[in-house]
Specification:
The longest helix has 26 residues. This protein has about 375 residues and is of the alpha/beta class. α2 crosses α11 and α7 crosses α8. The protein starts with a helix and ends with a strand. The chain has a seven-stranded mixed sheet with strand order 7-6-8-9-10-13-14, sandwiched between helices. Strands 2-1-3-4-5 form a five-stranded parallel sheet, sandwiched between helices. Strands 11-12 form a two-stranded antiparallel ribbon. The chain has two domains: about 200 residues, 3-Layer(aba) Sandwich (Rossmann fold), CATH 3.40.50; about 100 residues, Rossmann fold (3-Layer(aba) Sandwich), CATH 3.40.50.2300. The N terminus is likely disordered. Helix content is about 45%, strand content about 15%.
Length: about 375
């Protein structure tokens, strides 16, 4: 009898334990989410030619996160945002991502930088069921099919390339060349431009590549001069864009077009008056239009933090990404976990920030497609 009682008691204890685990599991949140915090982070290029641009993205995001935290966070949880420099090195990006997932236990990989870098880290994210939100890449290869854990925010490079080539076609420009970094980033941009050029029957007259580690700007400019283009599409960004512009302008003056990853602040700093007239694709609303609520919110928070701070288009892009991410956190409710977040984002419907609209669904996480072209004015501002 005592043995039977012991057996029943043990069975009851085991059942109770299983029940407790089941209930706990049903209510549990994921790694990176506690009662008081939400940890997010990413490997990003914080140094080198592309560093200034990425630092601006991060500053804009942090501006919004700081505001959320100052007002109690999201359901009482404050957001902790970590960036680790990878120097635009793919292998280092993977190592950084492993650390963020395994050691820091982030809930979201927020705004990782680069096309090959995002491709390389995705298997880690999928295996660990970690969300990748707003990667700084517009590559079409990352937008084919549906990936449950990947949420794009910015328009694709295909959208940007099409808009650039459309304008050139409308202007009657017939001689268009492209200079591009000879790496995954530059080759992606070249492929998108060639696809758009083929679609609109405006073939490139020259394709000039740059070694990203040892760029010969003078020779690239010489090759472009031989082709005598009316316009040059720049498949590069950061200080590489600036140095290539100087080399081109030393002997010729074609129209220069850049993608949204080119930072007008960097161009103004590096080139001064030579930046005037450069045309850049933009994928968020103009920061000059304070009548747009999200622009007004950004300008207000920036001014409150530092009255003398200068608004930045790149900073504003980071701000938009951060606001959309927090909107998803809030929509997921107090029991924030990966499944709830994904379902919340897919159920938001159309999110509109001025002309910028975005919608996710169980079939697509491709985000926005909005692209405008803006020219650097005589005052160094982008005029849409």
């Amino acid at each position: 009898m005592p043995a039977a009682l012991n057996h029943i008691s043990l069975a009851s204890t085991l059942c109770a334990a299983v029940l407790a685990l089941t209930v706990s599991g049903a209510q549990a949140v994921d790694a990176g989410v506690t009662d008081t915090e939400i940890r997010i982070g990413a490997s990003a290029v914080l140094t080198g030619p592309l560093g200034p641009q990425t630092l601006s993205y991060g500053a804009g995001a942090k501006l919004y996160f700081d505001s959320v935290n100052a007002n109690g966070g999201v359901n009482g949880r404050k957001i902790f945002y970590t960036q680790i420099d990878d120097g635009f090195d793919v292998a280092q990006s993977v190592e950084n991502t492993k650390k963020l997932i395994d050691d820091d236990e982030v809930f979201v990989l927020f705004q990782p930088t680069g096309t090959p870098h995002t491709v390389a880290l995705l298997p880690l994210a999928i295996q660990s069921k970690t969300i990748v939100f707003g990667p700084v890449t517009g590559a079409s290869t990352l937008r084919v099919g549906y990936n449950r854990y990947l949420f794009h925010v910015r328009a694709g490079y295909s959208d940007e390339a099409l808009r650039i080539v459309q304008q050139l076609r409308q202007m009657g420009t017939t001689k268009v060349a492209m200079v591009y970094q000879d790496d995954g980033f530059g080759k992606t941009l070249l492929a998108e431009v060639k696809h758009a050029a083929e679609k609109l029957k405006l073939p490139l007259i020259a394709e000039v590549k740059l070694d990203p580690k040892r760029p010969d700007f003078k020779n690239a400019a010489f090759l472009l001069q031989k082709a005598a283009p009316q316009a040059v599409i720049m498949g590069t960004a950061g200080t590489t864009f600036s140095n290539m512009t100087r080399a081109i302008y030393a002997s010729q003056r074609p129209l220069l077009y850049g993608f949204s990853v080119a930072n007008v602040d960097t161009l103004n700093k590096d080139l001064g008056p030579q930046a005037r007239g450069i045309i850049l694709a933009q994928i968020v609303p103009s920061i000059r239009n304070a009548s747009t609520p999200i622009v007004s919110e950004y300008l207000g928070l920036l001014s409150n933090k530092n009255a003398s701070a200068k608004p930045s288009a790149a900073q504003f892009e980071g701000f938009v990404h951060a606001k959309l991410l927090v909107q998803g956190f809030r929509a997921a409710g107090p029991k924030l976990n990966t499944d709830n977040f994904i379902k919340a984002m897919e159920s938001l419907g159309e999110v509109r920030y001025g002309k910028f609209t975005i919608r996710y669904s169980p079939q697509s996480h491709n985000g926005a497609s909005h692209v405008e072209l803006a020219i650097v004015s005589n005052t160094g501002e982008l005029v849409y």
